[in-house]
Queue: 2 jobs
Job 1
Amino acid sequence: MTDLVDVILPLAIRDTYTYAIPSDMPMPDIGSRVLVPLARKVVIGIVLRPHSAPLSPGITIREVIQLLDPFPIITTPQLKLWQWMSSYYMCPLGDVMAAALPAKALDHHYSMAESKRRRVVIDHFNGTTIPKNALNTPQAEALRNIYTQFESHDIVLLQGVTSSGKTEIYIHLIEEQLQLGHQVLYLVPEIALTTQLTDRLQRIFGTQLRVYHSRVSDAQRMEIYRQQLLDHSPRLIVGARSAVFLPMHHLGLIIMDEEHESSYKQQEPAPRYHARAVAAMMASHANAKLLLGSATPSIESRFLAERGKYGFVTLTQRYQGLQLPAISLIDLKQQYHRKEMYMHFSDPLVLRIRQELEQKKQIILFLNRRGYAPYIQCTQCGKIPTCSDCNVSLTYHRFGHTLVCHYCGRSYPVPTQCPECGGEMKLHGFGTERLEEEVSQLFPEARVARMDLDTTRKKNDYEHIIRAFSNHEVDILIGTQMVTKGLHFDDVSLVAVLNADALISQPDFRSYERAYQMLEQVSGRAGRTGQQGAVFIQSFDIEHPIFRYVCDHATDAFYQAQIEERHRFHFPPFYRQITLTLRHGNEERVSQAAAWLQAQLAIIFGSRCTDVITPAISKIQSLHLRSFNLRIEATSNLSKAKQLLQQQIDTMQSFPAFKGVQVLPDVDPQ
Ligand code: ADP
Ligand code: ZN
């Protein structure tokens, strides 16, 4: 008999690899890091299963080279979660491992046993804490309701309008959990949000707070991970999506703020997980509670709350009875017709911005597009330059004077004339960079900052912009969706949405839901203290039904309308969706593979399997794409369906004609 171990390697190929334990090595515990040979390299693996077997002659099994730490670095609950993710999201365990571990854990020179004594507490902390705020009557009632709901539910949805004080309620729950000796995980959708929250939470929880997300340095991430592994003290972890991978002990509560946010879903690479589903699983394994919070809950969560699967608590008033902002729709058709536009600003918007500036108020301008101009086009032949690796049009960036592909990041020189016909090239559309330029021309006296992907590439960029705006060093903040999520500024009196049409024109069953959430959330940044705020929405289509809901802040009515549509058209939450995307460098091959797979699945699943489509962006990074959907009744056996699906994928991939075609299943796509 030989001692063997099945090891997870951070590779997207299969779940485990088997190695032999050398006779002079003790059997490693489950969850330990080991160094193993793979082809001509050495890699780090995690021990999943020790076993022993007689070795058949002629079969050689390679040996584990080294046991890296004197203790397991993955806890049993973590491993259980990895296995759930791998099976639910249809990806190998190796994909989960690669996503879950901090980069340094994949470096075999790093030992978990030795502390590098890095600071894990945040720099500005001055060492003194202050007590939390007392709750007002509606907040206190909501808190009592949450406790009551938790008696009979593991998951509670708190639907509280923007600025109702949801964060204050979370603080009360957190304090109680810490006093009970528990750990708390507090998830936020954007790193930008952790910046503001960190200040607020640190004043109350001091050194019990840790912040974990992708902008935290590798060394610090590793140290936080290590501390979570070895030190079971009560603690509050604030983090973005990837914080669900930390080891937690005595987990009492997970708070997921802005639970409707689609950035909780990882799109690329696998595992394509939704942090809400993972958090629910984590809480259930640990016997902990999960609180979902939002002013505009996802249709799915609201549905589960209506059905009694989740507890449901509402908070309908803003703190101190402030009114929700007054919303004005501006008809761009009419404005252009009357020639009452200043660049991309309507006349009423310009006047209002001037007024607010005179009163020393602050303004947020929201535009869902970064760069200067979304595309350039030849005035003679109509040619639009596209990326040679992805078939998407290139965005013009004035900074650096380049054309950039927003899919792969590749940049190109700007042609002085059309490469096809020599005609003149013209800029089309507008992005945040151009908006910034227009603002400085229209309001030269105003101090302006821009927050988008291009201005927040470095570690502390978010912090600088948010601080500057909070400290009134900036009058007008321009931004993409980053500025819409959960940020709190005292003196923002006006929020303007420059081009609302871009939000509603997406061809996707979730596009109205997303547009509504975004408009309601961005409005929620206005008038958070003192007077009622104002929101100006510019659109070419002001009759669009979505604006009625937005103007009335009619979240409940909007939900009713959406849920009926979802039911009628067989969409989630009534049906579970799995999107299958096939990918290969050869277009013919991927197209045939997709046709074959779809035909097989249509035999099994009938009309639950949609036709193959060529996605609007049909090539990314030189790989051609085809896709289709499976929609399975929510009441049916989903794991059985996934099994049947996986069998067909495996069969397809075993045909030489389809060699190398990748299949990317996306379970519950966003
Ligand atoms: P939400 O999370 O619902 O958007 P916040 O918790 O950020 O709302 O509250 C909005 C503002 O009102 C914050 O500045 C917060 O400090 C203040 N606030 C809310 N409730 C209270 C309270 N009970 N005591 C003091 N300030 C409060
Ligand atoms: Zn590209």
Job 2
Amino acid sequence: MSILHNEQTGIFSLETAHSLYQMKADATGVLLHLYYGGKTGGDMDYLIRYTDRGFSGNPYELSSNRGYSLDTLPQEYSGNGVGDFRLPAVQVLSENGSRSVDLRFVGYAIAKGRRQLSDLPFVREAEETETLTITLRDSVIDLDLELKYHVFPSQDVIVRSARLINTGNQPLVIEKAASACVDFLYGDFDVIHFHGRHCMERIPERLSLPRGVASFGSRRGMSSHHSNPFVILCDRHATENTGDCYGCMLMYSGNHLEEMEVDQAGSTRLVSGIHPDGFSWTLAPGEAFQTPEALLSYSANGLNGLSRHYHDIIRHQVISPRWQTAKRPVLINSWEAAYFDFDAEKILRFARSAKEMGMEMLVLDDGWFGKRDDDNAGLGDWVVNEKKLGCSMQELSDQIHALGLEFGLWFEPEMVNEDSDLYRAHPDWALADPDRKPMLARNQLVLDMSRQDVVDYLFDAMCAVLDHAKIEYVKWDFNRSISNCYSHALSADRQGEVAHRFMLGTYQLLDRLLKRYPDLMIEGCSGGGGRFDAGMLYYCPQIWCSDDSDAVERLEIQRGTSYGYPASTMGAHVSASPNHQTGRMTPLSTRSIIAQSGTFGYELNPEKLTDAEKEEIKKQISDYHRFELLIAEGSYYRLTELDENKDFEAWMFVSPDQKEALVNLVMTHVRANGPFPHIRLQGLNPQYHYRLEGENIAHSGLALVNGGFAFPQMHRDYPAAQLHLVAIDEA
Ligand code: GLA
């Protein structure tokens, strides 16, 4: 049993393998948060002390008890406007103009398993999953709130969400409904958030939480390159391998907000959910609103420990079962090889060469449809441009399959160009304010995915392509942020719903396509990693990590991504040198080592490769096949501390049985007469001896973890080394 309710004390305990989460409804019905952290073996309500703090008032019925204030007590889901002056989790506008919400305990239910969500991605049930539902009620506005807790014990993850139900007979307007709110009574925290930009996503920044509010989020209609929906709170001394760390990851691909407030007494509140700016949702009598899910996790083993919890749950409970253990194809993508300049003959030449080198799939990127010879026209017209190709898609696909390769195709379903037949026929299908010219980005507009007719059109248009050629893979792109978020199909008072309805439309389209083509692999993409989040990962087992394919830049991007997401989700390709984004020259071997720590592929013109390079690529692909399971299933460890080491980056994978490991090191700064790059390995079994491939030598796990390993000095620009360890016996 991972969920317990003690009838005497009223305490709810949620237990995972290494964590405990406790709460209880007190005598006034307020649901108090008691504790989240390492196991304690007992009840933690003794941590709460009551005192009369000036300017922290008291609920009316408790006015004689001036030590009781909603403003000072740790709460599980704080309502707006009734005495807690910290960040609210929920705000609802009633017909009379009040925005107050006062939630009191009504009841609870504990169940095995979990219910699926119908229109949002969710964390899939594991065998041992249990669910706690706590119902709170505001009986003045007739609002019921169901707090859901799905416990995943062996992954050390608790999944939270909230469901708001209008039980009265007046409409209610939800203005804020967080997915999770967690109060930490004690502790000084650093926050790590993941900021970025197009071509440089998920860069970790670690900051001491200030007094007051710190917040990160996106109002771009997408989870964004600029701020990933994932934050870590860690104790001020936490390192990669030591210290308390808490994660909160939102399973959502649209506008989001992560807020942290350190209050007057030093307590910290974390609130995460749909961004309330511009959001409102009318809840008619009898209707319910479900928030996205938030994945909470705690680790006492530093940032690496926390990352492994997220890797585990994403690999096994977020990614579709279809792809959890299936090998991913080594692909070649046409984008940086040809951009818009191709015909079927050129693509087939790429395919032949790719096959000779051992690649397994050819992906035809942007430019195969409508009037699409550059990025100014054609989006929305998902009709094969046979004139440009010189044949039908079926003929091209047949020939690629005849070579022994699989075939993939690029789409950008949610977008439209003004210069397209679709826009000419349905200008009202694009998001745009009335009487105002919309912002253009990459010369394109955003389709109104809140409309069912738009979703239906896209489903039919994509099926028409997918039905007429053998296509195993779709790259699903999204190449601008959403502005002018106004739908012509909704009334003025419901425009606050458009951004969320947009996401529901996108999720619906993905879901319908995957039901119709259960073996189709959809790789997510948004100008690289602009929608790299657990919501998209529910549908897409891998996401193109960044439009920056420069190997050295990728070190940072993939490291940042690794805090929340496993290597098996990171689309990573070997691209040309000099690199197209930076002009940087890097050795082919270094490019391969870095791309291998993702879903391996190539994105270069094979006709420009020398024979020697082709031979090297053959070897890279066969090496990758030796290691791909270890990389996909192994435990991942960052071997350098954030911001501390400037000369090299190192990371490793250890197989679940600890019998095999792969260590990677890339020099980012080679120094004359420099020190030997030395690292202490992680995750090895101290009892085992490990043989180092290529060297007739073995070391004990204990030695490699405590004493570490010194690599030889390396020369030239950006050299890399890889160490493959295999356990030979027990020490
Ligand atoms: C985005 C993607 C690229 C490529 C182009 C095509 O930028 O991230 O990989 O598909 O679109 O236009």
